[in-house]
Amino acid sequence: MSRRMDRASLAFSEQVKDSVMLRRDLDDEFYDDLLEVLVGADTGMGVAETFVSALRLRVKTERISTAEQALAGLKAEMLEALNSRDRRLSLDQSPSVVVVVGVNGSGKTTTLGKLAHRLKEEGRSVVIAAADTFRAAAIDQMKVWAERSGTLVVTHQLGADAGAVVFDAIASAQARGAEVVLVDTAGRLHTKSNLMVELAKVRRVVERATGAPPQETLLVIEAPTGMNAIAQAHAFHEAMPLTGIVLTKLDGTSRGGTIWAIESELNVPVKLVGLGEGIDDLNVFDPAAYLDALFAGVLDVPEG
Ligand SMILES: Nc1nc2c(ncn2[C@@H]2O[C@H](COP(=O)(O)OP(=O)(O)OP(=O)(O)O)[C@@H](O)[C@H]2O)c(=O)[nH]1
Ligand SMILES: [Mg+2]
Description:
By secondary structure, this protein is an alpha/beta fold. The protein has helices spanning 6-18, 28-40, 45-61, 67-83, 108-121, 136-149, 162-176, 192-210, 228-239, 258-266, 287-294, and strands spanning 96-101, 126-130, 152-154, 180-184, 216-222, 244-248, 270-274, 282-284.
């Protein structure tokens, strides 16, 4: 993970080195600098304040006296916040349906292509529903990804009903005993309310066809949009219950703090992260590795 996170870790660690690390005393100025660095990394003010006051307490109770020890304490606080969430994908129905939603260009289709590949590597049988019928290119793009991973993809014509594609894909999975159905959806329709109506319909089709709502409804968010992503996320979260977030383009962002902002605002865990455009560039989110990458160059990570 660290190799791909150069930008985020550089931005964060450079700022820490240029301000916080230069402080000799753990006084108010030290904490002010720290707050500034956290907000600069896009954790949001609320999260930054929570970390800083938790750290003040830790410094007192653990009798911490150096900036380096304090930063190790901050890293521990940040890890604790991430470790409190369950990030596993639930895929134990037959079939389990995973729906990805998100604004256009966020990385839904790419994520599904990578996820299909990942699940197949784990030995699961997968069917893809190309339910973004709004653009012809979207159907073709999904087909290309399906081919790359050797996955069956169910498609309809341009402009066809998204719910009907999903229905057929589930029927096809049931007929073959496939374990997972991955549903690609549109990021944009004629209006935003059209989109939310369509997504609600997709949910109902899944419920009707499998007897349960989608096991996973994953909101795909581009990490580089930072705090702006939060408003979009609320709109989707209000329209349908989300079970997880996929944070994409983490390879190209300097905003390493977005993850805490999103999780605290939405109370939904980041389950997967996108670290590039290749088929293998989708990872299960690993909090410890993420923090090691973020603090690289500031705190030395022991080998092994
Ligand atoms: N660097 C990088 N690029 C990514 C990542 N995920 C997706 N992309 C790129 O982002 C662009 C948009 O990705 P798509 O998967 O088409 O996004 P989408 O959400 O399906 O878009 P719409 O279908 O238009 O709603 C493509 O050029 C992808 O290659 C990632 O994790 N890292
Ligand atoms: Mg797409």
